[in-house]
Amino acid sequence: AGLMKYVVNGETTTEIIFKNALIEEPTTPTAPTGYKFGGWYLNSSYTTQATFPFRSQGQILYAKFVALDTCTIETVSGTNNYGFYKNSSGYYESLNFGVGSSYALCKATFVANAAKTVTFTVINYAESNYDFGIFSNLNTTLTASYTADSSNVYKSFKGSSSASTQTLTYDIPTGTSYIYIKFRKDSSMDYYNDSLQFTITNGGTITNNLSGTAVNRWRVIDGSESYSFSNTGTEWKTWSSPDNSAYYRSQNVGVASSTAECIIEIVASKGAVLTVRATSYGENGYDYGELSYLNLAMTAFSFQGITGETKTLTYTIPSTGKHFIYATYTKDSSTDEGNDYFELEFGITA
Asked: pTM of the predicted model, to two decimals?
């Protein structure tokens, strides 16, 4: 008989075997956090890798563990840098929505055990030829300011109101390297989803160290129903309290068996409060105005059509970034002669 020894993460186990037994590859051991299994070796310096099967001659098998490739995404220090956040779709997105003469800047740092190719999937919404999503050359920086960089630029995406998804790739060497990513807005307050979004493929384990700030704001856009609300548009508003002179009213007045819908988009820092003042007119028990939960297409508040019923509601923003609320007004089969509609006003505070 003989012995076969296995060293895994500093601990040795011994197995009694027949001398000259055929050794098959052992079960893959569990790697410590932040590492992956790198194979079985015949020496502690991991220079001679074992080839299975082999005949036992008193060898010792050493399990090698290799640190996982990593990517750290962080905000770059700079005056008035709005930064990025991770949105609900899994993209890292700039936070300077609709803020004229502004920028958002972050840095992706890669630690690689071997050379590889990293892919960025990019969506850039903005004003064509004026707002830019900018990616630096490898291991170079972009300016921490409102500047449309022309130096150290690997790729500059011009904006579009209906931007398509694009990709770009970097050849990442062994060791540590970095890339700067920037969204630069010109002086106008655009009426689209003016932002840069990106994801990273093959970057390794990603750590999100982003921190950003948002100018608390909201806007009301059309929903997917046949009818919408009055005064919808893509311009961001910053009013701090509901204003009756700037209301949004369902447009299916007197239309039997119909639904009007709008979407309230909010960009805000964590802890901001959106106030909604809602007034419902219609046939009691049959016509309904409804508001969803934050970020869910599920009804949170329902208003029966009692003439002039007004409620004031608040939504506290749980995290910095973009959020949404659905508002609908549903009419029954009658064509009421009254003021059958749902009216909304908004304000937001820090």
From this structure: 0.81
